[in-house]
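Page 37, continued from 36.
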């Protein structure tokens, strides 16, 4: 390919191997020097930072291999390289591990039953080992290499799958009184408050509303995952908690032309039965499921995800996996796989610590975002500088508000889930940028790209162009070349950081620009820039 190479292992029928158990993968990626790289930290559900280091300093342990999640981004002489995998079907997911040298090894997630890594029968092929290559870091951003390698669409007509923005109910903002840690918080987590989120979605021209966890009785605890044995006393999707009137919410959403997506614990679906659970929820009128706490990329987990997607497609349900492994092109194979986690996202601003910091969010476009849909859940409007940031409920986010405006354009996801509440959005500067915001794009152009420092892209939806940029901790001025525009004059509605202003300040302006000229953007420390361009008649 023009933007990379890939290889896979083929075990032909002629090998007469029959059934086999894979116990180790010996693949190594050997670089000519100890180059600078950005490696994901260890984690089975890929909620990690990508930290800058050298190849020899990527952690590794021969007895218990360190599990660094893909991709590994490497700055080599004259190019950038990213290592990942694609077409992961009925196999175990790949981790990368250091060797103490410039070579990077591969290890796979172990099976639940401890019978090696992969149990299969020849003929078989492994997933692709993918190497994305670009002269500049920005060359990697517009590639679709992982999806290109994946098995094509298996579900046939997917016109019923609708991209769009989603409102997200009380879990994010910390207002779920059914959780003990929120005892005493002045909040509502009930039918009435969910209607407010539906109203928000309808008013803003969005497509979805997500009803998150603790909506059904006896939900399995968050400290259990899909690999646990079936729950002897599982959560019951047919029994909502008293505060949530499911039929009323579904009817209300339909009256507003909003599609409801419902949350479910993966272990509860596994125990209930995939076919039975999805059939029941589809019959209730839900448009999709957000399925959480997979916490593995073992062969059984990968098999289970494909089973869910296959059954969901038959029932016209979109799927958003959370607590899951990174994308491997599965959204091409099953287009109803509308987005997924596998990212250290905005929720970490609420969970404690400062992991979702400025350096992390500016590094994501060059690492995790290269692989495919990324449910980061942007849109936090309680904006703080890093020195003023505190873990509170409702949750604060690091960086400027315009940085949050830029994220759903910079970060790929056919379903963009906006994390904040109607109370924090309505009447606030900058919120209008999210009105009728596209989430699927006809064309994309990289305008600026330096790993860990700056990124700017322009994306076209129909006749409109959206520009988004963010930076690191240094104030930055970018001259954004408008060579991508058709000839003539364009009206740019601009959302910019306020010089020396508060993190929540937004300067809105309108400017006429011309094709072939440039647009100047000044970003505060931890800042952003966003604009919508429409052609002047």
């Amino acid at each position: 390919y023009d933007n990379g190479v890939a290889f896979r292992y083929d075990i032909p029928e002629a090998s007469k191997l029959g059934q086999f158990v894979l116990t180790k993968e010996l693949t190594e990626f050997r670089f000519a020097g100890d180059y600078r790289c950005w490696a994901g930290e260890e984690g089975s559900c890929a909620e990690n930072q990508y930290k800058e280091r050298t190849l020899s300093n990527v952690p590794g342990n021969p007895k218990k291999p360190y599990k660094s999640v893909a991709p590994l981004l490497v700055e080599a002489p004259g190019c950038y390289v990213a290592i990942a995998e694609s077409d992961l079907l009925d196999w175990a997911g790949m981790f990368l591990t250091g060797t103490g040298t410039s070579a990077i090894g591969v290890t796979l997630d172990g099976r639940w039953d401890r019978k090696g890594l992969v149990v299969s029968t020849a003929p078989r092929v492994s997933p692709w080992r993918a190497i994305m290559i670009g002269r500049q870091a920005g060359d990697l951003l517009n590639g679709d290499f992982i999806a290109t390698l994946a098995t094509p669409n298996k579900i046939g007509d997917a016109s019923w799958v609708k991209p769009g923005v989603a409102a997200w109910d009380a879990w994010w903002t910390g207002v779920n009184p059914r959780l003990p840690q929120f005892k005493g918080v002045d909040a509502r987590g009930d039918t009435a408050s969910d209607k407010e989120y539906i109203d928000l979605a309808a008013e803003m021209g969005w497509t979805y509303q997500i009803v998150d966890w603790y909506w059904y009785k006896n939900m399995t605890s968050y400290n259990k995952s899909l690999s646990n044995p079936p729950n002897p006393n599982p959560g019951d999707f047919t029994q909502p908690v008293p505060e949530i009137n499911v039929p009323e919410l579904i009817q209300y959403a339909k009256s507003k032309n909003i599609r409801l997506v419902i949350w479910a614990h993966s272990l509860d679906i596994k125990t209930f039965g995939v076919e039975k659970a999805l059939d029941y929820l589809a019959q209730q009128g839900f448009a999709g499921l957000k399925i959480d706490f997979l916490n593995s990329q073992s062969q059984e987990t990968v098999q289970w995800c494909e089973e869910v997607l296959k059954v969901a497609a038959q029932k016209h349900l979109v799927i958003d996996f959370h607590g899951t492994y990174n994308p491997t092109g599965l959204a091409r194979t099953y287009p109803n796989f509308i987005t997924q986690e596998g990212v250290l996202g905005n929720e970490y601003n609420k969970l404690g610590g400062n992991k979702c910091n400025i350096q992390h969010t500016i590094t994501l476009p060059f690492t995790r975002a290269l692989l495919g849909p990324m449910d980061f859940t942007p849109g936090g409007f309680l904006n703080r500088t890093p020195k003023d940031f505190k873990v509170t409920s409702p949750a604060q986010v690091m960086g400027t508000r315009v940085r949050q405006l830029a994220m759903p354009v910079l970060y790929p996801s056919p379903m963009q889930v906006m994390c904040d509440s109607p109370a924090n959005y309505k009447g606030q500067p900058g919120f209008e940028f999210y009105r009728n915001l596209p989430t699927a794009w006809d064309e994309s152009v990289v305008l600026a790209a330096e790993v860990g420092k700056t990124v700017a892209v322009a994306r076209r939806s129909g006749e409109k162009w959206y520009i988004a940029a963010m930076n690191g901790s240094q104030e930055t001025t970018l001259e954004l070349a408008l060579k991508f525009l058709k000839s003539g004059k364009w009206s740019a509605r601009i959302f910019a950081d306020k010089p020396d202003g508060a993190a929540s300040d937004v300067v809105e302006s309108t400017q006429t620009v011309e094709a072939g000229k440039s647009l100047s953007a000044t970003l505060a420390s931890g800042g952003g820039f966003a604009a919508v361009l429409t052609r002047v008649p």
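The domain at 4-149 is CATH 2.70.98.10 (Beta-galactosidase; Chain A, domain 5). Flag for discussion at group meeting. The chain is about 20% helix and 30% strand.
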